[in-house]
Amino acid sequence: MQLSTRIVMTGAAFAGLVGPAAAQSIDLTVTIPRLSVAEYHRPYVAIWLEKAGAPAKTLAVWYDHDMKDNEGTKWLRDVRQWWRASGRGLTFPADGITGATKAPGTHKMSFGADALGKLEAGDYTLLVEAAREVGGRELVKLPFSWPPKPGQAASAAGSEELGAVSATFKR
């Protein structure tokens, strides 16, 4: 006697199993303002997540990674808050997070489950810090809760080295 079992899963039930992990993301927009200064250098920028009681998680670092003998890394410590929170423990170039400096303008990126990992429920801060040679440094913080409510977003604006920074959180 042969028994067979057939499991039928509706689309909604299946989406409930795989949907949240696949859809988990943060869509981020960072504006680097055009500055009228005598000597302009593109800023080094770090983007990371912090949660009380947990190690910081670097999502992206924009710096001069193509310099001879990896010389661009010596100025990463000028992105001070990030360097203290997470940067000094990384080896550069860091696979998946290292990118070139960006010109003035609006830059969009999305961080999915691969970059975020599995975020535990709680209160987080998404931080964006910029530091520029012969310029200043600035830190913008976007607090948010995880898991996000539908349509959850956050925004803030810098005043010198960073312009508008906005994020949409999806789970």
Task: List the main descriptive attributes of the protein structure presented here.
13% helix; DUF2271; five-stranded mixed beta sheet; 9 strands; signal; globular; disordered N terminus; 3 helices; DUF2271 domain-containing protein
Secondary structure: number of strands: 9
Q: Assess the beta-strand content as a share of residues.
A: 35-45%
The value of Rg in angstroms is: 20 Å
Structural class assignment = mainly beta
User: Which consecutive residue ranges, at least 5 long each, have pLDDT under 50?
Assistant: 1-22
Mean pLDDT reading:
86
Largest sheet: 5 strands, mixed
Total helices: the number is: 3
Order of helices and strands: HEEEHEEHEEEE
Instruction: Please give the alpha-carbon distance between the first and last residues.
Output: 46 Å
Helix content: 10-25%
Strand order, largest beta sheet: 4-3-2-6-7
What is the overall shape?
A: globular
Word description of this protein:
- The chain is built from three helices and nine strands; from the N terminus they run αβββαββαββββ.
- A hairpin with a 5-residue loop joins β6 and β7.
- The strands form two sheets. The chain has a five-stranded mixed β-sheet with strand order 4-3-2-6-7. It has a four-stranded antiparallel β-sheet with strand order 5-1-9-8.
- The N and C termini lie far apart (46 Å).
- With 171 residues, it is mainly beta.
